[in-house]
Specification:
667 residues; mainly beta; ten-stranded mixed β-sheet; six-stranded mixed β-sheet; 10 helices; 45 strands; 11% helix; binds sulfanyl-(tricuprio-$l^{4}-sulfanyl)copper; binds dinuclear copper ion
Length: 667
């Protein structure tokens, strides 16, 4: 589970060194305990009933989900399902949410997610949405932060491995996605060793500022390298986007060796305003492709899928000035832009320095045509013409950098297992702190934005080993909270995480907490199967399809006795929770159900599909402890043999019958 990351990152050689260091660290437990200073406990203590200061959104990595933690306590607040089915709330199981996971490859129940990204206004996280990428089958999801729910997923065509994603532009006009794996475009049956000739990369810009309407604005066709990470420019560099690439060797086998030959790979600097011009001038060619766009209709809370059939593709040969390459040592991983927008920091994971490019110098180098060569229409700038400086002897295996807004940068060092603090402009290392163990990403709330809230840093570590009570061969991955408010970094807290949190973003809780939806208004529920009162419940048959409309309220279902179902029927329970009160949920489960249970938020309708296998009487019940009479919240459904003469029947209460009669009289 952790090994493939090292391999894919080309860190095999590094990995050997890392193991040595891991064991070295593991042998120094006393020393690590002493790293925690006296007031650490007070700094992370959030008294019962009090709130945390920040929401932190962590990717689940191979779990495909997002988990939400409070900082500084490290308390887990919620798990938001995104790219994987989730039994706790029937995400990806019930009829309403399943279409979110549709792709051109069919229904995908599990993916790998890496980078949560908050929406921004003027380069600062604004608390509207969180985006996250699916890495394996490239997609981008939008999570609405008034409900902490996935509302939209768009698939990225002409792409394989959506890793450099979904980094946002300063006003969330675009989120991006780049191919990690180059592939034949369009993908077709060719020999793998025709890589250099037939394989290409793409950089995709996806419009993101309209909920429910994400679309691919354009793609840029790139040389067949591996595109790894990205970040938007800001301030003076607003309008530009930077992507790291490795494998400029264009190896198609044994990359750990063959893609580590060149002294320098590239950062692709994309002028996306120029790309927009080329699209407007008709220089982007429409290409026939298929991809899905899935989104939740707000009234019915039901996901819909639409298939799209074309994208606009820009070839840099036909759009001069759209992309430049910045030579960057050596197989760079992260690329991070400082709060001023002037410095572009690369994590050259096999490099001995941290190279920093200057946006001002980049502009001058373009004006001066300080080019080494051109690759597929893309000018390669001279390293000396664009580099602002190099952080010397930072440690081993620099991966990712974030900023505190006070002139300092913090870089994660995978191999030497530490966070290194250095000064922008002078490039001197000013502090370092060990992490336990093998840090990947690090995160400062707002730390990739124009205005970081530079009080805490969270280290996300790949290896946990001896940090917690052992739990067999697999340990939870570990995050560490570090106080960065002073000159010296101070370790405050370890907390376990869910899946592998490649990255996280955080923002002050005040930006989100007062905007929460507390329940869905029943009057606004437009689900075709909504049941708004007991009198509306009932059963209908259409051929072998049975639809049961049912309400749930403390502490009963109505109807709760159902007959007339036959073996061979498919039964849809459409259950509406008619509560109009915060946090009053009901559940629904029926004996022998082959999918998940249902969990119903107040005011919403969800559907469980059940295929009874034999005659009998099957109980159903509420799975969420909702009241003192929760255990009374139950019912029965009778199933008869095929062809039976038992009549369709769904009981409703006397009160509901009276209401029904009254309503009919009025008609
Ligand atoms: Cu470095 Cu996928 Cu951002 Cu993991 S990636 S560490
Ligand atoms: Cu409804 Cu328990």
């Amino acid at each position: 589970m952790k090994i493939p990351f090292k391999r894919s990152a080309g860190l095999a050689i590094a990995g050997i060194a890392a193991i040595g260091i891991i064991y070295a660290c593991a042998g120094q437990r006393t020393a690590t305990t002493n790293l925690v200073t006296g007031d650490a406990a007070a700094k992370v203590y959030v008294a019962p009933g009090s709130y945390d200061e920040y929401y932190a959104f962590m990717s689940g990595g191979y779990s495909g989900q997002v988990s939400v933690y409070g900082l500084p306590s490290g308390r887990l607040l919620k798990l938001i399902p995104v790219f994987s089915q989730f039994a706790e709330d029937a995400y990806g199981y019930d009829a309403e949410s399943k279409p979110l996971l549709e792709t051109t490859y069919g229904f995908i129940p599990w993916d790998d997610s890496h980078h949560p990204e908050l929406s921004m206004t003027d380069g600062v996280p604004d608390g509207r949405w969180l985006f996250i990428n699916a890495n394996n089958t490239p997609r981008i999801a939008r999570i609405d932060l008034t409900r902490f729910e996935t509302d939209e997923i768009i698939q990225i065509p002409n792409s394989a491995g959506g890793h450099a994603s979904p980094f946002t532009t300063p006003n969330t006009k675009y989120v991006v996605s780049a191919t990690r794996f180059s592939v034949p475009i369009p993908n077709t049956d060719v020999p793998i060793d025709s890589y250099k000739k037939s394989f290409k990369g793409t950089l995709s810009f996806i419009t993101a500022d309209q909920p429910g309407k994400m679309d691919i604005a354009f793609q840029i066709l790139m040389p067949g390298y591996n595109y790894d990470l990205g970040h938007a420019g800001k301030g003076p560099s607003d309008g530009w986007f930077f992507f790291t690439s490795y494998n400029s060797e264009q190896a198609n086998t044994k990359l750990e060796e063959n893609a580590s030959q060149n002294d320098k790979d590239y950062i692709a600097a994309v002028n996306y305003k120029r790309a927009e011009e080329c699209v407007a001038q008709g220089q982007a060619k429409p290409m026939a492709v298929e991809y899905f766009h899935n989104y939740v209709d707000p009234g019915s809370r039901t996901a819909k899928s639409e298939k799209k059939t074309s994208v606009k593709v820009i070839d840099p040969v036909n759009c001069a000035g759209v992309v430049y390459y910045l030579p960057t040592p050596k197989s760079p991983h992260g690329v991070d832009v400082d709060p001023t927008g002037e410095y572009i920091v690369a994590g050259g994971k096999l490099a001995t320095v941290i190279p920093v490019h200057s946006f001002t110098k980049l502009q001058k180098a373009i004006a001066d045509k300080a080019f080494d060569k051109t690759v597929d229409g893309i000018p390669v700038l001279k390293y000396d013409a664009v580099v602002a400086g190099e952080v010397q002897k930072p440690g081993l295996g620099p991966l990712h950098t974030e900023f505190d807004g006070k002139g300092f940068a913090y870089t994660s060092m995978f191999i030497s297992s530490e966070v290194v603090k250095w000064k922008l402009g002078t490039w001197e290392v000013v502090d370092r702190i060990p992490t336990y163990y093998s840090i990947g990403h690090l995160m400062i709330p707002g730390g990739d934005s124009k205005k970081p809230w530079g009080k805490y840093l969270v280290a996300m570590n790949k290896i946990t080993k001896d940090r917690y009570l052992p739990t067999g061969p697999e340990m939870a991955q570990s995050a560490q909270l570090i106080d960065i408010s002073g000159d010296k970094m101070k370790l405050l807290l370890d907390f376990p995480t869910i899946g592998e949190p490649h990255y996280a973003q955080a923002l002050p809780a005040s930006l989100i907490k007062d905007k929460q939806v507390k329940f869905h208004k029943l009057a606004e529920n437009t689900n075709p199967w909504v049941t708004k009162s007991e009198a509306d419940g009932g059963i209908t048959r259409a051929g072998k399809k049975i639809d049961i409309k049912m309400i749930a309220i403390r502490s009963h279902f109505a109807p709760d006795n159902i007959e007339g179902v036959q073996v061979g029927d498919t039964v849809n329970f459409h259950v509406t929770n008619i509560e109009q009160d915060w946090d009053i949920l009901h559940g629904f489960a029926v004996l022998g159900a082959q999918t998940s249970e249902l969990i119903l938020q107040p005011g919403e309708t969800r559907t469980l599909t059940w295929i009874p296998r034999g005659p009998g009487v099957y109980p159903f019940y509420c799975t969420d402890f909702c009241s003192a009479l929760h255990q009374e919240m139950q019912g029965y459904i009778r199933v008869s043999p095929a062809g039976s003469s038992v009549k369709l029947m769904a009981n409703v209460s006397k009160k509901a019958q009276a209401q029904l009669a009254e309503a009919q009289k009025e008609k």
